[in-house]
Design goal:
Elements lengths: L16 E3 L8 H7 L10 H16 L5 E7 L1 H12 L5 E6 L2 H12 L3 E6 L8 H9 L6 E7 L1 E2 L4 E2 L2 H10 L5 E5 L18 E5 L9 E7 L1 H6 L12 H5 L14 H18 L1 H23 L6 E2 L11 E5 L4 H13 L1 E5 L14 E5 L6 H17 L8 H10 L3
Helix pairs in contact: 1-9, 2-9, 5-6, 9-10, 10-12, 10-13, 11-12, 12-13
Bound molecules: pyridoxal-5'-phosphate.
Length: 409
């Protein structure tokens, strides 16, 4: 064994940071809580712990109504929500602001639900007046539910859910409102009951800081009643027994995801009982703004670098989508991953995979277990990459982000 004659400084050594919008960074406390012997699933600590977990699951979505949990990812809880809400041939109106809304629509269509998509494109918010008009044009109430994403993780557009509820109410339409919060729960402010949402779906691996593998469907009492006869419901996906089990196995329709549950317990303790949910939202808001400030600086004086969403009110606090001009987004991602230990998110659904333009988009995640040094570190590393790759950019990004973090912007 001999050392190379010319030492090279590999600056990617050290703890890697996966800054893609899910799975997110998992706290060591969550991982450590999972590291234990298999627990008894019939009596004792685990069933007791889960009984106490359900109130916290409701609390994180700001609801006092029902919640069903699944051993599942996000795609699976789309399907769970569809199966419980609809009968074959029912009409769903999908209000889409990116790839994830479109995918929920495809899932519903493939199940035999009639789906109408209002597609607001890849960088614009929902036009609530158009949604209201569409609902007014359905006086017979054929539309059973309006489906949307709170945050579409592909575009980083955040939908104003109370405004959508208001548009539905203004149209006097009885449809249920179903919201995908997979990217946003535990990151962006979300209040299921106060905002009049009937169905919320989320999964464990984003703001909830737990490994992928658990999905959740919260549903209102109204949804439970309106959907009682939904004929797409099958025994495994049925939300009723999961939300009101008489025996422990019914929470999962079988063996519980034992170790995930200990991880989730720890994560919800951190979110709800230590930091506090509103403080969690405030942290994400501040970190998101620091990322936006950096992009604004990089994009000043050129039209190659820009945030995807122009208005701050329409931007997610969990993830930021941006363009860098092809192929520089891909070059920068590869540089930060291999030279600095930071993995950024690919652009998703912004261009076809075989289109050279695909290499002009990336995403920065700032969801879950993230703090100022992590987000400022990502920004400084991106700055280094822009310099190393000789990608033209405006000055002052790190300073601008630091000012936001310092509260002196
Ligand atoms: C991640 C995500 C999904 C998909 O979740 P999977 O666990 O990858 O199936 C769906 N919707 C949104 C908004 C997401 O962020």
């Amino acid at each position: 064994m001999s050392l190379p004659t010319t030492p090279t400084a590999d600056l990617s050594r050290g703890r890697p940071y996966l800054a893609i919008p899910g799975p997110s960074v998992m706290p060591d406390r969550v991982l450590n809580a999972m590291h234990r012997a298999a627990p008894n699933i019939y009596a004792g600590g685990l069933p007791d712990m889960v009984a106490a977990l359900w109130p916290d699951l409701r609390a994180v979505a700001c609801t006092t109504q029902h919640v069903a949990a699944y051993i599942a990812n996000g795609h699976a809880v789309w399907e769970a929500a569809n199966a419980n809400m609809f009968s074959r041939g029912d009409l769903a109106l999908v209000v889409a602001t990116g790839r994830f809304g479109l995918s929920w629509a495809e899932s519903a269509r493939a199940m035999g639900i009639e789906v109408e998509v209002m597609d607001f494109g890849k960088s614009a918010p929902v036009d609530m007046a158009r949604v209201e008009d569409r609902l007014r044009a359905d006086p017979a109430g054929r539309i059973k539910a309006v489906l949307t994403t709170h945050v579409d993780t592909a575009t980083s557009i955040r939908t104003n859910v109370p405004a959508l509820r208001a548009a539905m109410d203004a149209a006097g339409h009885p449809a249920l409102l179903a919201v995908d919060c997979i990217a946003s729960l535990g990151c962006d402010e979300y209040r299921m009951d106060a905002w009049g949402v009937d169905v919320t779906v989320a999964a464990s691996q984003k703001g909830l800081m737990t490994p992928p593998g658990m999905g959740f469907v919260w549903f209102s009492e109204k949804a439970r009643q309106v959907c009682a006869g939904a004929d797409l419901r099958t025994p495994y996906w049925a939300w009723g027994p999961r939300a009101e089990p008489t025996e422990f196995w019914q929470y999962w329709d079988g063996t519980a995801p034992t170790h995930h549950l200990f991880g989730l317990r720890e994560a919800l303790t951190m979110i709800l009982h230590e930091e506090g949910l509103e403080n969690v939202w405030a942290r994400h808001d501040r970190l998101a703004r620091s990322v936006w400030a950096a992009f604004d600086a990089w994009g000043s004086g050129n039209d190659r670098i820009a945030l995807n969403v122009s208005q701050a009110t329409d931007r997610a606090r969990a993830v930021t989508a941006a363009r860098l001009g092809a192929p520089d987004a891909t070059r920068l991602r590869e540089w930060t991953e291999h030279r600095a230990g930071v993995t950024l998110g690919i652009g998703l659904g912004m261009a076809a995979g075989d289109d050279p333009a695909w290499h002009g988009f990336l995403r920065v995640a700032h969801m879950g277990h993230v703090n100022a040094h992590m987000t400022l570190g990502v920004i400084a590393v991106m700055e280094a990459g822009l310099l190393a790759l000789n990608i033209p950019h405006g000055p002052g990004a790190v300073d601008a982000a630091a000012r936001v973090v310092a509260g002196v912007a």
